[in-house]
Design brief:
Layout lengths: L1 E4 L4 H8 L7 E4 L17 E4 L7 H9 L4 E4 L9 H4 L4 E3 L6 H16 L2 H9 L17 E5 L3 H12 L3 E5 L10 E2 L2 H7 L2 E4 L13 H5 L5 E5 L8 H9 L3 E6 L21 H8 L3 E3 L8 H21 L12
Helix pairs in contact: 1-11, 4-6
The structure holds nicotinamide-adenine-dinucleotide.
The site of nicotinamide-adenine-dinucleotide has 29 residues, from helix 4 and helix 6.
């Protein structure tokens, strides 16, 4: 089988090359997949893509016309794939579970960094500025955290927060009765939480769930954590409410318009996204570049599961990790 990888980085090449064999040949393209680059997939049996590749209807039709049989996502989320259009034309598999701990731990790292001003202290002490003014934080113990989405990642993160002595409130479209978590309605979570952390998928329903309308319901000084998908938050509203002081801090591992910027070194570029540029200037905003998944364990699991998915699909014509349901 010949598999074309898009948006390939050195760490992808290293982790996947361990699995290449006479039967499984990989070609790594640096470019992202989109309508302009999809022709590179011509002649391959399958393609392997990541979170910021564009798998829209135009791309899917071209893939099908080239005889590509499989879209293997080397990630869990699939909001970048037009599943409805793919249904019945081409198979889509993903890695549902590679290390929820990686993402939950990164979320906790962001939270602790934010509330104890570690990001500011790190820069200050590098130049021997040991003053404490402006670094006062607050105890997490006793605070209320609202966790939206209590699947694999959200439930682990909620457990961490309980360990810190926080009250955990949760909202999930499908609450898990087996979890020892206090579920509530979304609006009640907005009203009661000192910190809100997003762990639900991006879909039509969750798009911009954090916007002016929902922020108005939140406590003054609320801290927002997003390690899920950028478009869960209306970034312009977020910026406005940070400027007004309503939002006390934001930790973003993902950003609405990240696809052209994240995973690349843009340090010598003029950033044309004014919203991101302004967010970055705020002392209470911490941005990481979609790195929550990025641990040795997770990257290794992503490669092994993706290769298993590809082998299983081409051997059996189906795969346990196939995204089978056509969303409405
Ligand atoms: P999961 O499927 O195990 O859990 C998602 C949970 O969200 C489920 O319990 C589901 O019922 C719930 N949900 C669905 N729609 C909802 C809605 N509209 N409102 C509230 N809850 C809703 O997924 P997971 O493995 O925990 O991953 C969560 C998200 O994290 C993924 O969708 C992905 O976007 C993101 N993610 C980010 C990174 C990263 O590196 N930053 C890595 C992996 C996953």
């Amino acid at each position: 089988m010949k598999i074309a990888f898009f948006d390939s980085k050195s760490y992808d090449i290293d982790s996947f090359n361990k699995f290449k064999s006479d039967n499984l040949k990989f070609k790594f393209f640096e470019t992202k997949l989109n309508p302009d680059t999809v022709s590179l997939a011509n002649g391959y049996d399958g393609i392997c893509v990541f979170v910021n590749d564009t798998v829209n209807s135009e791309v899917i039709d071209k893939l099908v016309s080239y005889g590509v049989k499989l879209i293997a996502l080397r990630c869990a989320g699939f909001n970048n794939v037009d599943l409805k259009h793919a249904y019945g034309k081409i198979n889509v598999v993903r890695v549902p579970d590679y290390s929820p701990y990686a993402v939950a731990e990164h979320t906790l790292a962001l939270l602790l960094t934010s509330v104890r001003n570690i990001h500011k202290a790190y820069i200050r002490t590098k130049s021997f500025n040991f003053a404490l003014t402006g670094l006062m934080g607050f105890d997490l113990h006793g605070k209320t955290i609202g966790v939206i989405g209590t699947g694999k990642i959200g439930s682990i993160f909620a457990g961490f927060c309980k360990g810190l002595g926080m009250r955990v409130l949760a909202y999930d479209k499908f609450p898990n009765k087996n979890l020892d978590i206090e579920y509530t309605e979304l609006n009640k979570l907005f009203e009661a939480s000192d910190i809100i952390s997003l762990h639900c998928p991006l879909n039509e329903e969750s798009y911009h769930m954090i916007s002016k309308n929902s922020i108005d319901k939140m406590k003054n000084g609320v801290i927002i954590l997003n390690t899920s998908r950028g478009a869960l938050i209306n970034s312009e509203d977020l910026l406005e409410e940070i400027r007004s002081g309503k939002i006390g801090g934001a930790c973003l591992d993902v950003y609405e318009e990240e696809s052209e910027l994240f995973f690349e070194d843009n340090s010598d570029m003029i950033i044309k996204d004014d919203t991101l540029a302004l967010l970055m200037t705020m002392p209470n905003v911490i941005v990481t570049s979609h790195q929550a998944f990025f641990t040795k364990e997770a990257v290794s699991n992503i490669a092994s599961t993706t290769v298993n998915n590809i082998n299983e699909f081409f051997e059996n014509g189906s795969c346990d990790n196939e995204i089978k349901n056509c969303p409405k």
